[in-house]
Sequence to fold (504 residues):
Amino acid sequence: MMARQRGWRLAVRRDWRVIAPFALLALLAAAVVLPNLAPPLSLANPDRTSASGFRAAIAALPTKPLVLVAFDADFGSYPEITYATRSVIDDLVQEGGSLAVVSYSPEGRALASAELERLRRGGMGDDRLLDLGYRSGVEAALVQSVTSIVPKASSGPIAVRIRGGGGGIDAFDAALIVGGGDLGPRIWVEQVATRSPELPLLAIAPTFLWPELQPYLASGQLAGLLGTLRDGVAYGVDRADGADSEAAIDGPPSALAMLLGMLVAIGVLLEATGDRLTSWLGEQRLARRP
Amino acid sequence: MSGFFGNDLAGIAGTTIAALLTIAVWSYLAGERRLFAWVQHLLAGLATGYLVLISVREVLVPRLVEPLIDDPRGNLVLWPALLLVLVLTLARWLPRPVVAVPVALLIAGTAAFALGGAVVGTLLPQLAASLLPAGATSGGMLNALAGLVITALVVVAFLHGTRSGPIGAVAAGTGRWLLIGGLGGWLGFLFVSRLALLVERLRFILVDWLGLGR
Fold:
């Protein structure tokens, strides 16, 4: 009887483990499609220090700034920072800024190409947007970019403006670093900030890089940092409150789906801990038996 | 909306293919190994093709071949680079002393940039930023003390095999747990990225592709 009960329990457990991923997908799908089930939920960080600091750094730029966008995100973490990245880029465009986009990683280049295409589809012309392409060589390429960043084949008003300013990173009013890959804001601080100390570095990075980057913000080596999903959403939400409808950006990830996913993860952790604890207690009991 | 595709025919085709491939990846959950393996091969093939394309179009031709053809004497630095490319692709028969020079230049340059940047850009400025000013608040001093103690304990945890008494063993154990706690926190941060990726993929399929919830 006991053996049958144990077998039944094991079967239920095995079936549940098969069904669980689909149940999770269904749960998250419902949360994504029905986002208004829990309107008070918000991903935006109530502490606006990072978001307002970033906005202040952008406001401190000269009018119609020339900004270098170093696009080195990675596929696995870009969805987390997409909303923040597009919000910041849209803000810079609204300010009348011109953007030059460069990548130092192949993965970042693929994402940069897609974003460039999106901006062009949105009506941004070559007078405001320049593709500087992919630069191989990691740190060495970054160092070379300090003095020479425009490919020979590049033309147009932005290329002329950069060449007029010396042809390197110093010609820009700021650099916006979209991180996540191997070559992120830290390498920029180490290789570029040491050679162009006057250039403000603004960084957007996924949450797992935040512990690494926060000290650079505290020491003033980064002028602004959106280093968590919640800070990025806070920046975008504040901006959307004040921006006109034309400038509205696609929304951030569903807050309800993120909450449900985290609760499920905590549940899995507790279940695993409970399993370990139960087996440990069983071993202790067996060890005490004469 | 992912924003990566337009509303024209190419955009609709791109959205459909991307959605079907995402579902093909998820088919692994239902035990469908062949479809999953096929998608993996597709990814590997596309990634290889993309890397070759980007290497040839954006690196080798405009930065190596063209400058050497235009001005071979003025671009002397590029000759070792060409030698390195040959070594890595075709000319494995070249004698070791010839091969060693460009490879050594590559490794030494990478190491020098990384190490120099880490010292000048991270270590020294961060040490300077960590120094407590003369009029530091008690909160600041407490933070500094906590940072110092945690750093010391983690360093002790790394001293594997070093003979130590009971206090050293407790310190090493505490440092190891702090290290594990840090790794756990970092994995928690990474989980946020991956969860956002999953939620975005679901939104892509349900909203962008199927048009639900628009």
